[in-house]
Design brief:
Largest sheet: none
Order of helices and strands: HH
Radius of gyration: 25 Å
Number of strands: 0
Structural class: mainly alpha
Helix content: over 70%
Strand content: under 5%
Amino acid sequence: MFSNVSQFLREVKVELKKVTWPSRKDTIGSTSVVLILVIVISVFLALVDLGLSKLVRIVLD
């Protein structure tokens, strides 16, 4: 079992050397896009929720 674990860890090390990691600029750019989209979608959903709640109040009154 120990040999299997050590072989697995060696293979992981070899595979990690093949990975192309994004640059700091790419990471910051991607994070910015995600944050902006989350904010836009949150505002949209808040407005839809507000509109639907007002519509339900009008219908129930």
